[in-house]
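[Automated response] Your request has been received and processed.

Submitted sequence:
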Amino acid sequence: MFKRLYCIFILLTCWLGSYSQVVFRSLEDVWKYADHNNITIKTMKYELDKSVYAKKQAYSALLPQATATGSYTDNIALQTTLLPASLLGGPPGTYKTLQFGEQFVYTGGINAQMNILNLQNIYNVRIAQQTQEMNKDSLASTRRLVYQQLATQFYSYLLMQEASILADQTALIADSTYQSANNKFKEGTANEASVDLAKLNLERAQQSQITARYQMITSRNSLKGLLGFSVNDSLSINASLNTSLHIDAAEAFTEDLSLKLSLWRAKISLSQYRLSNSAFLPTINILYNYATQRYDKTFEPFSGATGVAGWFPSQYWSLQASFPIFTSGSRYFQSKRSKINYEESMAQYENAQKQSAINDENIRLNYQRAISILSKTQDVMNLSLDNYRHISYRYEAGLSPLDDRLNAFQNYIDYQNQYLNSLSDMLVQLYQVKIRQQSF
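Generated structure:
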């Protein structure tokens, strides 16, 4: 019996060990984990890898192109040609039939070509280079967006954790107040309305408890989805809001990624405009061709025993120039469209430069506003709680009525909600500043 229980214990230990728990102690830990596990970031990394090969493909168009060819022909029935008999010493007015060629023909050759002047290929290379660089910044921008989503859920969890602590404390006070009011009602010294108000405060506190706990679970599940966990995987957040939430908002921000992306779009639009104009310019190619043939009456391609034993080589090189004269106007209109796209992208970039500076200034201002308001709402909440306690002491001493105590407690709940709303706003502004100071 003991051995069987021991085996079961070992199996359970192995099974539980297979479900390892991932613990996060800070927002930075969550960000670091997401860099390797978030599907959106991983997908953008694949796009960056593809752009690397797209650039190599564009470069390969500048290299010479060489092709080797070979063929074998079996003339099953040679074509018959009628010739005047007089050409062969026969009587005039008659014809003789002749068949030219051999049954088997073997050919082989090499063809090489290289572009000497083709600006379209050059601009395609430039566009591929710029696209790769833009994809690097796109990856950074994707990481920034994912970081924002993760920060939202991470701080939402901590906010609900704080709300749960306050709700538990409030529920204890509300229950004590309700029990006191109910006892006074039974003694005949309190009316039913006062009991109902005490019961209402207790229900509100219990509602806050339920809301906070379920929203904590929801935020943690949202983090699981962003980090590539399954619903059954274990994720733990070992952090709290007890640590300092103050950061130096005056610290320099990193370069705005949206501004960098806007600049890359403008550069690519310019290259595309130049590419469309290059269609009006000539192209010059150099070609080289070498070919050889051999004929035989029997299928013995390399013996040389019958037929014509030798190979008959030929080769040439040429310089080709192509000048576009008329293309029905399609290239002209394409160039006009490309020019408009470039002008549009430049206008967007110039506007993005102005907007970026305004956005950064607003991020700093919003953080300073949020941190100042949070300090005030926290002071008000604490003062409200102290006021409730003072009135409770006066009530116990018979110096204040029950209604004053109940109204003071209801005010405390209202100020507590204001504090949580201010804390939520401050956390949003906090991670906005953190992300702008983060290097991607």
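Summary generated for your ticket: Confidence is low (pLDDT under 50) at residues 9-18. Strands lie at 21-24, 65-74, 80-84, 95-99, 104-117, 234-237, 283-296, 312-322.
If you did not submit this request, please reply to this message.
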